[in-house]
Design goal:
With 266 residues, the protein is of the alpha/beta class. It folds into two domains: 4-94 and 212-263, Rossmann fold (3-Layer(aba) Sandwich), CATH 3.40.50.1860; 97-208, 3-Layer(aba) Sandwich (Rossmann fold). The chain is built from eleven helices and ten strands. It has helices spanning 15-23, 46-62, 73-86, 95-103, 117-122, 124-132, 149-154, 161-176, 193-199, 208-211, 234-245, and strands spanning 4-9, 29-34, 67-70, 91-94, 110-115, 138-143, 181-185, 205-206, 225-230, 251-253. The strands form two sheets. Strands 4-3-1-2-9-10 form a six-stranded parallel β-sheet, sandwiched between helices.
Length: 266
């Protein structure tokens, strides 16, 4: 039986994880679902997010997928425990937990996290850092949901004056607090990691999209097949996939409010 991995997010951010899974050939088939009809999750109520990701997990399970990556910090923050308790027949990976694992390679006493508002409010990063690293580490989380940054990246724009200005608004307050390292606590941000490094050249960065593949049960498959689904407009998303990943992968629409996978609209 071929190995299948499912990756979920509310928008294009999770493509940063898809890219890593694909390049490392971790599965024979990789399924990505962007819940673009409800992007961004970062400003949605917790119970709504849990309901949506639960539908995505059921969709993946109907496809025979047994390993699922929550490639969304917001969903990981507010729905990971909910999903693990609810779906015991699948292995579920959290992008937040991967970032915490990445911190073990450093000896930081003060770390900054760029995240969504919902991730900030969940306090998941301070909680997990204190539980798994040390209570002595100071964790400063800054929301980047309020400006145009995430919406701009969602449109496939990953450089330029607007990106730099929006990144500075989020990151400068953390820099002023003399953080020793920065966690990209939103999967959109790896697409602008080079800009962050250009603006703050001496700042060590943890990219959870690279860390999470270290947690996946690794294999070395050949001829990896990629399937991309969205709940919104597929054509526009396909253009963005081409811009961000430089590939010609097809994107299909799916209706999660139907219970069977035959509702995929080609």
């Amino acid at each position: 039986m071929s190995k299948k991995i499912g990756i979920l997010d509310s928008g294009v951010g999770g493509l940063s994880v898809l890219k890593e899974v694909y390049l490392k050939s971790l599965a024979e088939e990789v399924y990505f679902l962007g819940d673009t009809s409800y992007f961004p999750y970062g400003i949605k109520p917790v119970d709504f997010i849990q309901s949506r990701v639960s539908k995505i997990v059921r969709f993946f399970m109907d496809l025979g997928i047994e390993e699922i990556i929550i490639a969304c910090n917001t969903a990981s923050a507010v729905a990971y425990d909910y999903l693990v308790e609810r779906y015991k027949d699948v292995k579920i990976y959290s992008i937040v937990l991967s970032a915490i694992e990445g911190m073990k390679n450093f000896n930081w006493r003060k770390v900054g996290v760029l995240a969504t508002r919902r991730t900030l409010e969940s306090k998941v990063y301070p909680k997990l850092v204190h539980e798994r690293i040390s209570e002595e580490v100071e964790v400063l989380v800054k929301s980047c949901s309020e400006g145009m940054l995430l919406e701009t990246i969602e449109r496939g724009i990953v450089d330029g004056e607007l990106i730099e200005e929006e990144l500075k608004k989020c990151t400068d307050p953390l820099i002023k607090e003399k953080i020793e390292g920065l966690i990209l606590g939103c999967t959109h941000l790896p697409f602008v990691k080079q800009v962050i490094s250009r603006l703050y050249p001496n700042m060590p960065i943890i990219d959870p999209s690279q860390e999470i593949i270290k947690l996946v049960n690794t294999g070395k498959e050949k001829n990896v097949k990629v399937h991309i689904f969205v709940t919104g407009e597929p054509q526009e998303f396909q253009y963005i996939v081409k811009d961000l990943l430089k590939v010609e992968w097809n994107v299909e629409n799916v209706d999660l409010d139907r219970s069977d996978v035959s509702v995929i609209k080609r």
